[in-house]
Write a structure and sequence with these properties.
The complex is a heterodimer of chains A (about 700) and B (about 240). With about 700 residues, chain A is of the alpha/beta class. Chain A has 25 helices and 25 strands. Helix content of chain A is about 40%, strand content about 20%. Chain B is of the alpha+beta class and about 240 residues long. In chain B, strand 4 and strand 5 form a beta hairpin. The chains are: A alpha/beta (about 700), B alpha+beta (about 240). Chains A and B meet through helix 10, helix 19 and strand 21 of A and helix 1, strand 1, helix 2 and helix 3 of B. Strand 21 of chain A pairs antiparallel with strand 1 of chain B.
Chain lengths: ~700, ~240
């Protein structure tokens, strides 16, 4: 099929004519409109249209009309030269020292033309396909190289060199995996290039490339519209440097120049007077007080601080626009309050190009992202500011990135199974509000239907993960569980495995991440492992206080981390220790989210370990995933059941948790005293004993 | 004492602190061979070592030390302990033992599930902002009255067997790099641990016999006789009676 990617429309009529002429011609490849933007000695050139098809090769379309023939020819030559230069960078497309193995044709589309002229190719729209099909076919390999060259994604940093001596070591496998990610996939292309006149939502699983896509989009918009004020914002401070680096590399790749940072601003969502952010800039420009974190925390509590100050600012502005940006790109949208989006709407000029990207299932709860109709608030007439997001017409306003590049399909299915409690003895822990989401995030229905109280079986679709996982990795090795009798035994085993990873497996210390599930006890939990690693002369560090996401990893030391620092990071080999934490207890939704987040940090292999009976329960659930061939087989809960789940397994305030812990401790003390003979056994009434028995039986069932 | 033995001792110290919840972050050292047959015992870092960083005793330097990750531990109040030794065979060739108190107050109840760094960074920004706008009076524009900024100097015990012109081979820096208070001689890990916890963490000192009883080792005395008439840091392995 022909992917159509619509970027900046300089000539909408010509673009539409081009699409119309090519759309039902059974071509396989990509048609870009308003992309790529290429650098030349005299500046940058935006290619009006570019067709890369298997059947007929590469054709560049120029939409400008009314030029004298010499100028037209010269400008067609410029287009040719720019594309030639771009493709020539790719070794696999060169032929000898000065030629390409792929012909490039350039044609101008002019409705008023008489037809193709020999000197310079100018054709009317009805002749577009006739012109195109004169080209020779490209084999799939060459087509792939052409696409890669056109879409060449410079990574944040080139993968560090790996010293491997064996082709089958884990190090060698990672080397291959790292080489594979060069092309943007179809959805990423769409998300990066297509820019509608209005809001745009980009959703995807963690690991689907959203940050890279947003950075590409920022660079693309900036090079296409250098006089626009563009903002890129996010929640996690550590993304700041990542965005700066990515945007710089992508911009340089396009126009061979540094971005104009006065027009393209990378800003934290909050900011302060020493470092502007989106909120603080809007407040200053709007003549409102700029509130900092301490103020927010005192007034609204830790978790509500940003929401509170944004709400205050909305009150101060009272709907007044503070037009600062022509486009505002928001990453990690799931971590930002709706009030921030309403401020973003007021801060962007009509048509309010707010692009927001978020992880579906960052924490498995749908409440984290309100529907877009609620997100941006209402107009004065009470109607939602954003009523509809088109996902079918280009440029698309609603884009899902369904391919997860980070996690293997087996690890991801297992993470979902554990996160939701699909195979848990006590039943589900949580579930989506919107059943469609399963398919949006890459699951296929194998049996049944995703309808309340109906049975369904879901499996990761083949198109939801890159092929190299299946080609290079083995499911049973990708994720495994391990139960131990004590934390020391667990630590000893992990240290042994890490030692093997660093020697036989040819992995490096920075390829390994150990995640400690319980944030409250992570220091204590780390101690036995640090000791066991020290005995093997393996330096390790428990990450705590850093301000850069890169800072988690070090070249010569293995990273241990709690779940909060682990978020946003990834590693080829991940050890999830103390996983019994997620087996049961209060706030089970949060505990299961921890397991989900921890497992999905892994780029290739994950080892889930823990202690005791509780860990055995986790192991049992994972075994069921394997028995079902990594599919999720369950009954969809009713709405009522869903609300029950939320109520039972929700986060609870500290006071309630203390109360429950205290009651549990008092009960434990009574039992100890009975066992010690200090109290008679019948001090606990039959009624109470029977109730406990009943609860336990129901749970086991 | 050798580099390997010191490395193991430092590892033991880190494990003890972790087991007893006395740190927010920690790193174990390794031994690295240096030119000329010497061996460095230090935590692997991400970037340049602190000798090449900002001015001693500045908030910026504190932040860089955190980002560079060359600290052995970060204590629960945000203070840093930086420990590294260089050995020439079984002799201490040089050392760097630093206690870097945290310049802002971290309230312990906010450490539950909290990104510690956010508190530090926002604390710094808030303090810097207020300090600049209200030059002599630490009152914050938003009306809150807590004063988290602390005026405390780092303490760094440096030793180099080669000594520097006019300075004692072992000395302590406080307030500025130019301040070099002579110290009797190269310090053992035990001396440093006991010094920090005894003088700055009274509750921990009282509660942890292991720290109180951390073994001391007495190395050669390197303080010059003519320095002894001035105030300096001394330490002896026996009570000397007059």
């Amino acid at each position: 099929m022909l992917d159509v990617i619509v970027g900046t429309l300089n000539n909408p009529q010509a673009a539409q004519a081009l699409r119309n002429e090519l759309h039902d011609k059974d071509l396989e490849g990509t048609l870009y409109i308003g992309y790529p933007v290429l650098s030349t000695v005299d500046g940058s050139i935006s290619i009006d249209g570019l067709l890369c098809s298997r059947e007929h090769g590469l054709v560049a379309f120029d939409f400008e009309t009314g030029r004298p023939p010499e100028k037209l020819r010269r400008e067609q030559d410029d287009i040719y030269a720019a594309i030639f230069q771009k493709l020539f960078q790719s070794r696999s497309l060169r032929e000898g020292r000065g030629a390409l193995s792929v012909p490039i044709r350039v044609v101008t589309i002019d409705p008023a033309s008489e037809g193709a002229q020999n000197e310079s190719d100018v054709i009317p729209p009805p002749r577009i396909f006739d012109y195109v099909r004169q080209g020779d076919p490209l084999d799939l390999g060459k087509l792939r190289h052409v696409n890669a060259a056109i879409e060449r994604v410079t990574t944040l940093k080139p993968p560090a060199r790996r010293e491997v001596t064996r082709a089958d070591s884990r190090g060698a496998l990672m080397k291959q995996i790292e080489k594979e990610i060069a092309n943007l996939d179809r959805w990423q292309k769409t998300a990066a290039i297509e820019s509608p006149e209005g809001p745009q939502r980009v959703r995807g699983l963690a690991g689907s490339g959203k940050t890279i896509v947003l950075a590409l989009k920022a660079a693309y918009l900036h090079t296409q519209n250098p006089d626009w004020q563009i903002g890129v914002t996010f929640h996690t401070r550590s993304l700041y440097q990542q965005f700066i680096d990515l945007i710089r590399r992508f911009t340089f790749d396009t126009i061979r120049d540094e971005p104009d940072w006065s027009q393209l601003k990378v800003l934290h969502s909050w900011g302060s007077s020493s470092r502007p952010g989106v909120y603080s800039t809007i407040a200053m420009e709007g003549g409102a007080p700029v509130r900092d974190f301490s103020y927010g925390r005192h007034k609204y509590g830790y978790t509500g601080a940003f929401e509170g100050v944004c709400k205050e600012l909305l009150g101060e502005l009272n709907g007044a626009a503070v037009p600062l940006f022509d486009a505002l790109l928001i990453d990690e949208a799931q971590d930002l309050p709706a009030e921030f989006f309403q401020l973003s709407y007021l801060a962007t000029r009509t048509p309010h190009r707010v692009v927001w990207a978020y992880d579906e299932l960052q924490n498995l709860t749908r409440q984290s992202m309100p529907p877009f109709r609620e997100l941006f608030g209402n107009r004065l007439d009470g109607e939602p500011r954003v009523e509809h997001l088109s996902s079918s017409e280009s440029p698309r306003q609603d884009i899902v990135l369904p391919v997860c590049y980070r996690n293997t399909p087996w690890a991801l299915s297992t993470a979902h199974a554990l996160g939701f409690g699909i195979y848990r003895d006590g039943g589900l822990v949580q579930f989506f509000d919107e059943p469609d989401l399963w398919e949006d995030i890459g699951y296929e229905i194998v049996a049944g239907a995703i309808e309340p109280e109906r049975h369904v079986e879901l499996r990761r679709g083949e198109s939801s993960y890159p092929k190299y996982f299946k080609e290079l990795l083995d499911p049973a090795d990708a994720i495994s569980t391990h139960v131990f009798e004590s934390p020391e035994a667990e630590a000893y085993w992990v240290a042994e495995q890490v030692e093997k990873n660093l020697s036989d497996d040819e992995l490096r210390p920075r390829d390994i991440m150990v995640i400690l599930c319980n944030a409250l006890t992570q220091q204590r939990d780390a101690a036995p492992l640090v000791k066991a690693l020290s005995e093997r002369d393996i330096p390790a560090h428990l990450a705590g206080v850093t301000s850069s996401v890169d800072a988690l990893f070090r070249d010569d030391s293995v990273a241990l981390t709690g779940i909060f620092r682990a978020k946003g990071n990834e590693a080829p080999m991940v050890y999830v220790m103390g996983a019994q934490y997620g087996a049961g207890g209060l706030e089970l939704i949060r505990r299961r989210n921890v397991l989900f987040t921890a497992i999905t940090r892994s780029r290739a292999w994950v080892r889930v370990s823990g202690v005791g009976d509780s860990m055995q329960r986790i192991e049992q659930e994972v075994k069921r995933v394997v028995e079902h061939n990594y599919s999720l087989d369950f009954t969809v809960p009713s709405q009522e059941k869903l609300e029950d789940l939320r109520r039972i397994h929700r986060d609870r305030p500290s006071s309630e948790k203390s109360q429950i812990s205290k009651a549990e401790e008092e009960f434990r003390q009574i039992l100890s005293r009975i066992e010690a003979g200090e109290l008679p056994p019948d001090i606990i009434s039959d009624e109470l004993l029977e109730a406990v028995r009943r609860i336990r039986t129901n749970f086991d069932e | 004492m050798t580099a390997a033995a010191t490395c193991r001792e430092m590892q033991r110290f880190v494990v003890y602190l972790l087991e007893n919840d006395l740190v927010v972050a920690a790193a174990t050292p390794g031994v690295k061979d240096l030119p000329g047959g010497k061996r460095l015992v230090a935590v692997p870092t991400r970037g340049l070592r602190s000798e090449l960083m900002g001015e001693f005793g500045t908030i910026v330097e504190y932040q860089r030390l955190i980002e560079n990750g060359e600290n052995l531990v970060v204590l629960n109040d945000g203070s840093l302990l930086q420990i590294q030794y260089v050995y020439d065979g079984s002799d201490v060739f040089s050392h760097r033992l630093a206690y870097y108190p945290c310049p802002v107050t971290i309230e312990s109840e906010t450490l539950d599930y909290v990104d510690f760094e956010i508190l530090l960074i926002l604390g710094f920004e808030r303090c810097l902002n207020s300090f600049l706008t209200e030059s002599n009076h630490l009152v914050f524009a938003d009306g809150t009255d807590d004063v988290p900024l602390l005026l405390r100097t780092p303490l760094r015990f440096d030793y180099s067997c080669r000594g520097e012109d006019g300075h004692s081979p072992c000395h302590m820096h406080m307030n500025s790099n130019d301040c070099r208070i002579p110290v009797y001689g190269p310090l053992s890990l035990g001396h440093f641990i006991r010094f920090v916890f005894r003088n700055f963490y009274a509750t921990i000192w009282d509660d942890h016999a292991t720290l109180r009883e951390w073994p001391l080792r007495f190395d050669k005395r390197t303080v010059e006789t003519d320095s002894c008439i001035e105030l300096y840091w001394d330490c002896r392995d026996a009570i000397v009676t007059a």
